[in-house]
Amino acid sequence: MFYILYSPTKNKYYVGSCEDVGKRLIKHNTNHSGFTGKAGDWVIKWIEQHPDKIIALRREKQIKAWKSRIMIEKLIAEA
Prior knowledge:
Layout: E1 2-7, E2 12-17, H1 21-28, E3 43-48, H2 53-66, H3 69-77
Antiparallel strand pairs: 1-2, 1-3
């Protein structure tokens, strides 16, 4: 799966891919040293199901290559 998270505290989006978004969200919201570790308020804004990890990872890289908050918010708004 490909997913986009949002943190109101950081006012930032996080783009990722994994097999279990629910479990991954719990990890993002725990206190750890990574980018998502300190906020603790990440919420899922977008999920896409893909048939395998390789396709989900390609989608993640595509969105990250945009380097555009505006494009991410446009994608989310289309839901």
